[in-house]
Amino acid sequence: MKLFTFKPGGVHPKESKLTKDKAFVRLKPPKIVVIPLSQHIGAPNTSLVKVGDHVKIGQVIGSAKAFVSAPVHSSVSGEVIAIEPRPHPLGTKVPSVVIKNDFKDEWVEDIKKISSLEEVQPKDLVGIIRDKGIVGMGGATFPTAVKLSPPKGKLIDTLIANGAECEPYLTTDYRTMLEFPDKIIDGLLIEIRITGAKHAFIAVENNKEDAAELLEKRVKTRGLKNIEVVLVKTKYPQGGEKQLIKAVLGKEVPSGKLPLEVGAVVENVGTLKAIAEAVFEGKPLIERGTTVSGTAIKNPGNYIIRIGTTVEDIIDQTGGLTKKLRKLIFGGPMMGLAQSTVEVPAIKGTSGILFFGEEALDMAPQDESPCIRCSRCVDFCPMGLMPVLIDHASRRNDLKLAESLNATDCIECGVCSYVCPAKRHLTENIRKAKQKILKQRKIEAAKQAAFEKLKALREKQAKEAQEKLKKEVK
Amino acid sequence: MDKNMVDLVVTSSPHIRDKVKTSGIMMDVLIALIPATIAGLWFFGAKHTLGVIVISILSAIAAEYLSCWMFRRKPSLSDLSAVVTGLLLALTLPPSSPYWMVVVGAFAAIIVGKEIFGGIGSNPFNPALVGRAVLMISWPTYMTTWVKPFTKSVFPSTAAVTTATPLNIIKLKGYSALLANFGGSVNLYKSLFFGNVGGCIGETSALLLLIGGLYLIIRKVIDWRIPTFYIATVFVLSPLFHRDPVFSILAGGLFLGAFFMATDYSSSPITSKGRIWYAISLGFLTVILRQFGASPEGVMYSILIVDCFVPFFDKMIPRAYGHFVKKEVKA
Ligand code: SF4
Ligand code: SF4
User: Fold this and answer.
1) pLDDT tens, residue by residue, B90-127
2) How many angstroms separate the CA atoms of B92 and B109, rounded?
3) pLDDT on residue A304
4) Residue B114 and residue B108: Cα distance in Å, rounded?
5) Average pLDDT, stretch A392-417?
6) Dist CA A390 CA A406 (whole Å)
7) Between helices A172-179 and A269-281, what is the axis angle to 10°?
């Protein structure tokens, strides 16, 4: 197998993959699920059910008309007991459907299964992926159907299955590759059928060589010539979309553009499995595999969890905590989001849930000391940015300067903060600047659009007036 | 679930940090300076030299303490940078420096060289070199009196124990006189390499400085580009002035300057490309100053002068991912 990597930058934090050898275990569904109506990037869904309604597993309970959106489905059968804002892993309260489980596990009846890909048109396959609510499960939660519908004139010629899983602690993708290699390959075949891509890669970090070997064996036995398994060096953030494209294809996605620009689509292996299940089993995204790990949880492991299961339930179901919980992280330790309550539910994008006690405070010291200009942040930034300078600009709120230093290219990987000996909050400040710039751009664009509209209107009026004048003169 | 078991703190990602701390980096620099320091004590006798080193470090600490209080800053002694500055200053002083002068130098280094600019990370010049420059201007005689290694007393009471540095001899009498003095070029190289020559406490042995420098490069504390390009430039340019290139890189403060002074974080550029040009400029200026300057050595002034242009070198920003130079953009 070939070995690739990206350059420059990147780090190799302690892997801490405590749950590497733990096979997936399906957790018992909880008494109550809290299903946020928005679990994706894009337009929020509106509820299709009312309090008191009886719902079945797989029933669509929220959807939106907008193109960039993904419907949500009920993950249990039972009664809707509330529709109200509830804590969401993103840190805000989001309208959520609260369902009381009747433990009858009744599924919706009209499940359509596809048996052969040749029977269906690519367009219809995209439709299935959309209807089943599939989103990027590596954490980005971008609606998959949208990703697979390039605008006219753009071709997708390469697919990359992302099995890098470079975040410490997380082993969800690793276990998925070991336990469901054929579903991942099926998912790729579906995407190949949809996009007409000529070549597909499955990229796996070389600390998971066994998974790569297994996948390669399956690809060989199935006689698939257009799928190639490749190794990428164990280095964070190797699984970042842009880094993976650079590593495997040697190309860079132009600033501000999507991978589509270089003809590529990167898809997390878990998403591919979900796509295969959606198409061949008619199964919507109602559950997912997730790593439960950290030092404060009694039984770390990889669990298959119904969407909407709260952390509270997960703690109880897996055997409880070992010590006082001081930090709860959704996602990996480099990019994950710290949670303020155990009432948050696991959602489609939850690739891992990490539990830490008091030691979490030492793992990420918050006290800053002055920058010593050591340039570590510059040397290790995987996007080739100047974190220290963007940080300075952000602190002075000099958005122009931050923009000229390409702050908007930051992928918020956390590497700069990780390596800084002065423990500066670089990523945090750069993220702030980036968000402000993007907001400003939006406002500017809106202003520009309004201005154009006004101009067009004025011109029209002027023309009309002139014509009127001409007529009168005649 | 027991709610008392939950007391969550929310911080921004990343939730793990590398173990490297500012004080750890400074510690590495101190470790790297140990061989050269011991050599200084060995060649010039521990009796007075040790005093110079200890007093320099203690004065630097005192100055740091004083300025933290004066400028109402958070105490910063724990980052060890004052210790590094104190030790570096001592290593650039003649072994016979009077103690009072060392105290003045250390205070100048910390207060004028660092604290008035805002403390660690904000100083445009290398603090130790600022301290040394102040002494050089104020007491040039003390700063250019050199003793022969292995002399009983460092106090040059008789002319017999004083000597001139090799660069000095060249300046005054020419290279052949120097060779005659050492008995051939091989002997000269040997003396310079192992440090058996007159000079500042820490600058004489190229070998030991090299060991310390390599340690810092391996530990990724300093960027190899600065010493490499600095020394290489001196090596390449020296023959233009009819100077022996090997001698030119081994003599004087070049190794100490290239590995330990020019690599000072706050007064050197932050990008790789900037560092290369910074180092080349240093080499160029050092050769020029050695040839045409009033004093035989040019390392200190080169570094102080080129430090002024660091904001310019900092503009040499690397190409960011997804941004292409014009040629690369497809039509
Ligand atoms: S968070 Fe942004 S600036 Fe920092 S290393 Fe990652 S990409 Fe670079
Ligand atoms: S890593 Fe930290 S201390 Fe070093 S240059 Fe960047 S911000 Fe400054």
Assistant:
1) 999 988 888 999 999 999 999 999 988 988 888 999 99
2) 12
3) 95
4) 9
5) 93
6) 8
7) 50
pLDDT for B297: 80
pLDDT at B25: 94
Q: Token pair for residue A392?
A: 């300075």
Q: Is A430 in the pocket of ligand 1 (CB under 6 A)?
A: yes
Give the minimum alpha-carbon distance from B237 to chain A in angstroms, rounded to a whole number.
29
Q: What is the mean pLDDT of residues A127-134?
A: 92
Which of A373, A395, A425 to mutate to test ligand 2, by most ligand atoms within 8 A of the CB atom? Answer: A373
Candidate from A395, A423, A426 with most ligand 2 atoms within 8 A of CB, to mutate: A426
**Cα Rg for chain A, rounded, in angstroms?**
24
Residue A137 sits at φ, ψ, to 5 deg, of -95, 0
Half-sphere exposure of A451 (CA within 13 A, CB side): 6
Structure tokens at B87: 């030790």
In A254-273, the residues whose Cβ lies within 8 Å of chain B are 254-257
> DSSP letter at A121?
-
% of chain B surpassing 90 pLDDT: 47
Q: What is the mean pLDDT of residues A359-367?
A: 89
- Please give the DSSP secondary-structure letter assigned to residue B110: I
pTM over 0.80: yes
CA pair distance A347, A365, nearest whole angstrom:
29
Provide the 8-state DSSP code for B330: -
- How many residues are present in chain B? 331
Please report the pLDDT score of residue B248 as a whole number: 85
Question: Model confidence over B280-318: pLDDT tens digits?
Answer: 999 999 999 988 887 778 899 999 999 999 999 988 888
Q: How far apart are CA B249 and CA B256, in angstroms?
A: 11
Task: Find all residues with CB under 8 Å of A345, minimum gap 6, and list them.
Answer: A33, A34, A35, A36, A86, A89, A96, A307, A308, A309, A310, A311
ipTM of this complex:
0.88
The average pLDDT across A317-335 equals 93
Which fold does the domain A287-363 belong to in CATH?
A: Ubiquitin-like (UB roll) (3.10.20)
- What values do phi and psi take at B8, rounded to 5? -85, 135
Closest C-alpha to ligand 1, atom 1: A412
Look up the CATH architecture of domain A3-280: 3-Layer(aba) Sandwich (3.40)
For chain B, list the domains and their CATH numbers.
22-313 (1.10.3430)
Evaluate if residue A246 carries a pLDDT over 60: yes
Chain-centroid distance, C-alpha B284: 17
Domain ranges of chain A: 3-280, 287-363, 369-474
**What's the one-letter identity of residue A251?**
K
